[in-house]
Amino acid sequence: QVQLVESGGGLVQAGGSLRLSCAASGGTLSMQFMGWFRQAPGKEREFVGAINRSGGLIKYADSVKDRFTISRDNAKNTVYLQMDTLKPEDTAVYYCAAGPRYGSSRYEYNYWGQGTQVTVAS
Questions:
Q1: What angle do CA 3, 56, 5 make, to 5 degrees?
Q2: I want to staple 109 with a disulfide (CB 3.0 to 4.6 A). Which of 57, 81, 84, 97 is the partner?
Q3: What average pLDDT values come out for the chain (122 residues) when binned by 10 residues?
């Protein structure tokens, strides 16, 4: 029902910035939250943050809080992940996801994008 398309990944130097976008289509009224996750080689998929439909509730993992910012433009059905002060340990495949409620577990989300690679060089 819901399709998610991510863009904006790439290579950046440590201390730099990237903005990821996730465009949603196919009906999202039942998906109250959009989440961002990341997965590095050999590691579990890690919660990055989430935002509710109104944008009034935003949650971040401690590892990215104060560096990453989640926002959304409902007119464009798009959620953004602004990443500042990037570190090499931020290198991962980043995924967006949609789910009916807030959660920090991948199992609480019903739909996923294809993932986009973010590489931070030191």
A1: 15
A2: 97
A3: 94 98 84 95 97 95 97 93 98 97 95 97 94
